């Protein structure tokens, strides 16, 4: 049957055509971000960047293909260091089958990548680290929240005219959606001067791009002297801006803590 043709006028087809037209020594780099589904018993969740495929072709002599994953569904312990045997059982065989198919296509077994605080890659997926203990008592709380906040805030100018970004109180929040997909959550503390936006990790860069606009709106509310909960009400009454997402509820929901909302946004 041969290899299926590339979709006409697709970015990949254009890159291949440009590479084939080159003469002499050259390196061609192609990176494709892939959406996909990860499973829990009875549920399916879509991630807009479940994998990324990075390909480097060094002339006709060397081809390097790197597969990156942006989900913890293949691990025996999630990124908050909690065991997840059912999630692992539903998803790890899928990753193993994909790696086997790629190995067959390329005629070579994969070389596992470097270990990190959450995972140890192997030729068939990831090793079981449950017997080795967590590298940190709370690696999510120690690193991930700060990483996401830094990435989000890098998209807007610095300012001191804004709400505090952390709170120990419960929070009320609105879900932000675009085209039926959840991008994140805009929130306000019930007990202090804190408010912000939590991007939904599975939505990828869109969640952070939209979040930057919501943070700027919160900054505007702060400039008007509105308390956090009043700012949340003000946002709900502002003219709709579909390009940054729409508020999904008629009234705000409540989470027991900002940490609980962060966990919701990070997992689903």
What does this protein look like?
There is one protein chain. The protein is of the alpha+beta class and 268 residues long. It folds into 2 domains: 11-126, no CATH class; 139-267, no CATH class. 32% of the residues lie in helices and 26% in strands. It is built from 6 helices and 10 strands; from the N terminus they run H-E-E-E-H-E-E-H-E-E-E-H-H-E-E-H. It has helices spanning 11-20, 85-106, 139-153, 205-223, 228-237, 258-267, and strands at 27-40, 43-58, 62-69, 121-122, 125-126, 171-178, 181-189, 195-199, 246-247, 253-255. The strands form 3 sheets. Strands 6, 7, 8, 9 and 10 form a 5-stranded antiparallel beta sheet that branches. The protein has a 3-stranded antiparallel beta sheet with strand order 1-2-3. Strands 4-5 form a two-stranded antiparallel sheet. Strand 4 (121-122) and strand 5 (125-126) form a beta hairpin. Helix 4 crosses helix 5. It is globular. It starts with 10 loop residues before the first helix and ends with a helix. The model is unreliable at 134-143 (pLDDT under 50).
Secondary-structure map:
Layout: H1 11-20, E1 27-40, E2 43-58, E3 62-69, H2 85-106, E4 121-122, E5 125-126, H3 139-153, E6 171-178, E7 181-189, E8 195-199, H4 205-223, H5 228-237, E9 246-247, E10 253-255, H6 258-267
Antiparallel strand pairs: 1-2, 2-3, 4-5, 6-7, 6-9, 6-10, 7-8
Helix pairs in contact: 4-5
């Amino acid at each position: 049957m041969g290899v299926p043709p590339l979709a006409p006028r697709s970015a990949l087809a254009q890159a291949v055509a440009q590479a084939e037209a080159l003469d002499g020594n050259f390196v061609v780099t192609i990176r494709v971000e892939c959406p996909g589904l990860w499973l829990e018993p009875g549920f399916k969740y879509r991630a807009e960047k479940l994998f990324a495929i990075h390909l480097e072709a060094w002339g006709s002599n060397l081809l390097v293909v790197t597969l990156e994953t942006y989900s913890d569904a293949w691990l025996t312990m999630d990124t908050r260091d909690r065991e997840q045997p059912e999630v692992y059982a539903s998803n790890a065989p899928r990753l193993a089958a994909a790696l086997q198919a790629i190995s067959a296509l390329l005629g070579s077994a994969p070389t596992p990548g470097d270990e990190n605080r959450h995972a140890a890659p192997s030729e068939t997926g990831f090793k079981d680290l449950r017997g080795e203990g967590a590298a940190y008592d709370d690696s999510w709380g120690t690193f991930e929240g700060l990483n996401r906040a830094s990435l989000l805030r890098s998209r807007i100018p610095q300012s001191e005219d804004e709400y505090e970004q952390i709170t120990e109180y419960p929070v009320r929040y609105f879900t932000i959606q675009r085209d039926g997909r959840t991008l994140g959550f805009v929130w306000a503390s019930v007990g202090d001067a804190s408010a912000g936006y939590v991007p939904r990790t599975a939505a990828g860069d869109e969640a952070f791009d939209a979040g930057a606009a919501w943070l700027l709106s919160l900054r505007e509310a702060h400039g008007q002297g509105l308390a956090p909960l009043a700012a949340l009400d003000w946002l709900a009454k502002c003219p709709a801006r579909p390009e940054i997402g729409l508020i999904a509820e008629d009234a705000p929901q409540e989470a027991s803590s900002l940490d609980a909302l962060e966990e919701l946004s990070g997992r689903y």
